[in-house]
Amino acid sequence: MANHSQFGFQDASSPIMEELIQFHDHALMVALAICSLVLYLLTLMLTEKLSSSTVDAQEIELVWTILPAMVLITLALPSLRILYMMDEINEPDLTLKAIGHQWYWTYEYTDFKDLTFDSYMVPTTDLPRGHFRLLEVDHRVIVPTESAVRVIVTADDVLHSWAVPSLGVKTDAIPGRLNQTSFIATRPGVYYGQCSEICGANHSFMPIVVESVPLANFEHWSSLLPS
Hints:
Elements: H1 15-47, H2 58-87, E1 94-101, E2 104-109, E3 116-119, E4 141-144, E5 148-155, E6 160-164, E7 169-173, E8 179-184, E9 189-195, E10 207-213, H3 215-224
Parallel strand pairs: 1-5, 4-10
Antiparallel strand pairs: 1-2, 2-3, 5-8, 6-7, 6-9, 9-10
Helix pairs in contact: 1-2
């Protein structure tokens, strides 16, 4: 998860988040090149003597018309690729339904019978030592590592948003509508997120915790739950 002095993204824990971070770095390099070119031209104009002679500048006009178009293409193509990758959901290994309420989440494992629970934030007064304030919940979402997980997101009352930055997931929860997204947790760990849509007075107090465990541990966890 993020720390107080962190300026960049959280460590990627899914292929989509790795792609997003790479595209972010790519876009920054393009922006750096543009800023360097503009700064060089400004410095040149301020330091060189100006000439009043008129010059036929058709070549220059052609360059500054084609160059921005090429820059936009270098940004658009990888961006569209990632958008299609984020929308592509083939055959998931596990389907999870997340329902937003004011101000908690309800999770349903649709591949299992009667596997449903509510997830509330742990109050600060009840928080165990070493756990994160305003981020820990009483029931975590348990998913298997290296497995395609489809998340169906909806809401029961107002707009919410199910977001976990490390997994590259952010989907709006809209009452009366089902949205879906997917992710693959590439390594075991605990990933924290929060509702990313202002949903009322306690909007800041409905965190999301996803715990990725090996498949054998996930099967053991699901077998211990009451049927």
